[in-house]
Amino acid sequence: MSFIADKQTIEDLNVLGKYKSHSIYSIFNHVVTAGAEKLLDDMFHHPFIDHILINERSRQFQFFDGKKP
Question: What's the total number of domains in the chain?
Answer without folding.
Answer: 1
